[in-house]
Amino acid sequence: MTVVVLGGAGYIGSHTVDRLIEKGYDVAVIDNLITGHRAAVNPKARFYQGDIHDRAFLDEVFNKETNVEGVIHFAAFSIVPESMKDPLKYFDNNTGGMITLLKAMRDHDIKRIIFSSTAATYGEPKQIPIKETDPQIPTNPYGESKLCMEKIIHWSDLAYGIKFVALRYFNVAGAKADGSIGEDHHPETHLIPIILQVAAGERTGLKIFGTDYPTKDGTNVRDYVHVVDLADAHILALEYLKAGNDSNAFNLGSSTGFSNKEILEAAREATGQPIPAEDAPRRAGDPSTLIAASDKARKVLGWKPQYDDVKEIIKTAWNWKQTHPKGYNDRGEA
Ligand code: UFG
Predict the structure, then answer these.
(1) Could you read off the pLDDT of 50-100 as tens digits, one per residue?
(2) Ligand 1: centre distance to CA 158 (Å)
(3) Which domains does the chain have, with CATH numbers?
(4) Residue 263 CA: which ligand 1 atom is closest?
(5) Considering only CA atoms, which residue is closest to atom 1 of ligand 1?
(6) Which terminal Cβ of the chain has fewer Cβ within 10 Å, N or C?
(7) Does the annotation mark 328 as catalytic?
(8) Model confidence band, residue 330 (pLDDT cutoffs 50, 70, 90)
(9) What is the DSSP string of 18-32?
């Protein structure tokens, strides 16, 4: 049986492909390589370069991969500020891509999908920690595009029997412990990799976006999960559906919040570098505090994250950064 991973050359996708292979699964990867990296894909996975909007391409893949036990779908855009400027790009790629994929799954009789949803579907939370049953009222088009995906898959389940698990990620960080794969975005917008670019001397300083939020030190509070722990949750979710359980949605977080200033301090300790920083205005679309209630994933899926110390998470990202200062370009990739 084969697991097809869409977006398997991206940051979270490539770590999930790697974990699937380590655990003995047969894996096929689909990626258009717009934001992903061919070198990030474990060489034991079969690779198909193409786009999820391209129905003929999906048919070609699913005609070759005839024994698919499930699909894990990461292929989406995920930058909140970009989505505020160009919402149609997000609805087209994320929501539209999901429709094409589901049609192909329906026609090829593939009945299980695990997909990347997000804490951004909740918007400004009504309570902390955020529970899966809390209202989903996104404050940006990225979150709305993912919420639409959750709704479309729900109705596809009822109509076509395609079972799903929506995994609502909070903040993801870190890299595989051996430093062979890691995070490589162009441009980089995320806090921890930007801090590490400063630590490595590639940027002069960090700008802390907003210091007047109603939090312990005025900066945004986020809930960080190690990328390998996140990857493992996808595999547990697939096994959950294979065991005959019904469709479901889970938060993936640590239930602990760190302010941006606390992350900066942890990174200073993890790297031993001074990492200069300055206060800057708020960034559009940022909720004040996002912390997950994540007991449901632990209880129902049996998820047991291995990393519970944010400094250890940052150390794995720093290891990747130091061994791959130019990301995957170090491997001769264009
Ligand atoms: N930040 C800075 N300076 C920077 C970059 C980020 O202060 O140079 C701040 C942001 O303003 C925010 C925090 O660091 O307060 C974290 O920002 P990230 O961009 O790293 O992550 P986000 O919390 O904005 O977004 C992440 C994912 C989204 C997802 C969201 C849901 O990237 O896809 O979590 O929680 F929707």
Answers:
(1) 999 999 999 999 999 999 999 999 999 999 889 999 999 999 999 999 999
(2) 35
(3) 2-173+224-252 (3.40.50.720), 191-222+255-328 (3.90.25.10)
(4) 14
(5) 191
(6) C
(7) no
(8) low
(9) HHHHHTT-EEEEEE-
